Amino acid sequence: MPEADGPPPVARREARAMGSPLRLQVAGETPASTVDAVWAAVLDEFEAVEDVLSRFRATSEIHLLRTVGGHATEPSRRLVAALTAADRARRVTEGRFDPRVLHDLERLGSRPIELPSAVETGPTASARPDPAAPILRRAGRRGLVEVPSPVDFGGIGKGLALRWAARRAAAGLGDRPFLLEAGGDIVGHGAPASHGWRVGIEDPRPAAASGARAAGAAEASPALASEAGPVVVAELPLAGGAVATSSIRLAHWRAPNGRLVHHLIDPRTGEPGGEGLLAVTVAGPDPAWAEVWSKGLFLEGRARIAGLARARGLAAWWVTVDGEVEMTPAARLRTIWVGDEA
Question: Fewest beta carbons less than 10 Å away: which of 58, 171, 178, 288?
């Protein structure tokens, strides 16, 4: 039996999903059968979301929707929910977030799936969507869905998968504290009584990224500081809500013309954004919205990120290209400085 003041037992399960490490941590004495059942539900949810939203699967619903001209007579509930969430994020962020950047990603060389020539040369193949136009059109609550411009769900897709998987995990675990992490994005439910969860924000610079975690990965455990891994520039406690990071440490490549580009496309320009920044982390109540704002803030670049983040009251941390770590007042209140006592 552990000592009363020692760390609580933590059950862990790990796999890969959406191209990233996926991990569940459950604190407290929990039967292995319960953890296994919850883990199966988490894996099932991530698989279902990938099967609907992934642009890396030729059989995904969103890819097949594109091949038939963007019209779906019987769309799945996950697809409609994701499109609706993305459209709301477009409005709330005033166009800073807009998933209709797939043509730009492909133009820059990110093309995981070859398309039929009729799709590639269709009438919307090069036209930039009207930023004021909705992402989807619907004929009633259950009728036809039309998506005029192809979308890349990217980060918001992972955020939605975390949101939905966390709900299923909470249903199976009740009041037991748990953390669910997907490639550095984390959603938490409660915290161990004697040792709270602590989330570390990694230094995204190549020289500091010694671990194998995804970009901006937040290694969360009751004893983070004692674990070997990437360099951590800040820590924060997490008893609920979510943390998400947008970073260019891993997802960058050479475009066809030879220039170095990355996956965080500014929908207002069609080009990679975020001048002067390497990574942005946002903490908030929901993983999908944390993802939306981490990208939206990143695209503002170093010169404008602070003003927008403060105006929105966001808890946000960012790392600049020269290694400086900056944050909003809301983030400063939540930060545990590395080396300080928890």
Answer: 171
Rounded Cα distance, 146 and 71, in Å: 5
| H or E segment and range at residue 160 | helix 154-173
Q: Do 110 and 250 meet the contact criterion of CB atoms below 8 Å apart? A: no
Per-residue confidence band for 228, with pLDDT thresholds at 50, 70 and 90: very low
Highest mean pLDDT among 122-126, 135-139, 315-319: 315-319
Q: How many CA atoms lie within 13 A of 340 on its CB side?
A: 11
DSSP state of 306: H
For residue 310 the two structure tokens come to: 């403060």
Q: What is the largest CA-CA distance in the chain?
A: 68
95-123: per-residue pLDDT in tens? 999 999 999 999 999 987 776 655 554 44
Residue 278: pLDDT above 70? yes
Cβ-count burial 262-294 (b if 16+ within 10 Å, e if not): bbbbbbeeeebbbeebbbbbbbbebbbbbbbbb
Name the pTM for this structure: 0.88
Q: Where are the beta strands (DSSP E) in 267-324?
A: 271-272, 277-284, 315-320
Distance CA 334, CA 277 (A): 22
Quote the CA–CA distance of 240 and 145 in Å, as a whole number.
Answer: 35
* DSSP assigned state of 5: T
- The residue-averaged pLDDT of 82-88 equals 97
Query: Which amino acid is present at 328?
Result: T
